[in-house]
Amino acid sequence: MSVVDQIQSINKELENTQAKLIAVSKTKPNKLIIEAYENGHRAFGENKVQELVDKAADLPKDIEWHMIGHLQRNKVKYIAPFVHLIHGVDTIKLLKEINKEGRKNDRVIPCLLQVHIAAESTKFGFSESEIEEFLKSGLLDEFKHVVIVGLMGMATNTPDQIQVRKEFAGLKSFFQTIKSEYNHPQLDFKEISMGMSGDYQMAVEEGSTMVRIGSTIFGARNYANKE
Questions:
Q1: 212 within 8 A of 68, measured Cβ to Cβ
Q2: Does the pLDDT at position 224 exceed 60?
Q3: Residue 10 burial (10 A CB sphere; 0-12, 13-18, 19+)
Q4: What is the mean pLDDT of residues 165-187?
Q5: How far is CA 127 from the centre of its chain?
Q6: Residues near 108 by Cβ (< 8 Å), separated by ≥ 6?
Q7: Alpha-carbon distance 119 to 163, whole Å?
Q8: What would the pLDDT profile of 180-205 be if each residue is shown by its tens digit?
Q9: For residue 122, what pLDDT band results from cuts at 50, 70 and 90?
Q10: In this structure, what is the dihedral angle of CA atoms 7, 11, 14, 16, given to the nearest 10 degrees?
Q11: CA distances (Å), 57 to each of 16, 75, 82, in order?
């Protein structure tokens, strides 16, 4: 199936759900993104800042660019002028830097807090208690140039579907807790980014509003070709 066919197939699956497709175009050439764009797709995800910046410079300006990878504080300035959503905010220091760059660019930058839901120490993210402590601390008052629109999580890379489902369900439950118990001008909880090529159907069943799908659409990553 072509890139367009794959996107149409996934969108058809998502038709009667609350989930939106983020096509993860990392390591893929611009021509494939243009192919999807010309057939109406607008939301693309990248995990490397330099690649994201290069593609944003070369491709149509109405593309919604999602930063889905681990973001280093010293690279926030490069994407702050245009990024649509930062999925992986995993420290208060990073949020502070995003706020600083948002102020410089006269923007309020939408962010998701990444929650560590997996049974793997290699994955990034806050614990639930760290997020609650932050929201109770009053620190959010200082961050006028960010808006936290929800949570992101990556499930354990395991064939154990029961475990993966439990992790997704736990993230949805925590999302609902935050949404109901905390009220702040910089909080606008509406998005749960969870689910990738191998587990997105389950993530959608458990309440995902954004699925990050790359290999199912574009094929395996190609690190030798990063137009």
A1: yes
A2: no
A3: buried
A4: 97
A5: 17
A6: 102, 144, 145, 146, 147
A7: 9
A8: 999 999 999 999 999 999 999 999 99
A9: confident
A10: -170
A11: 34, 16, 10
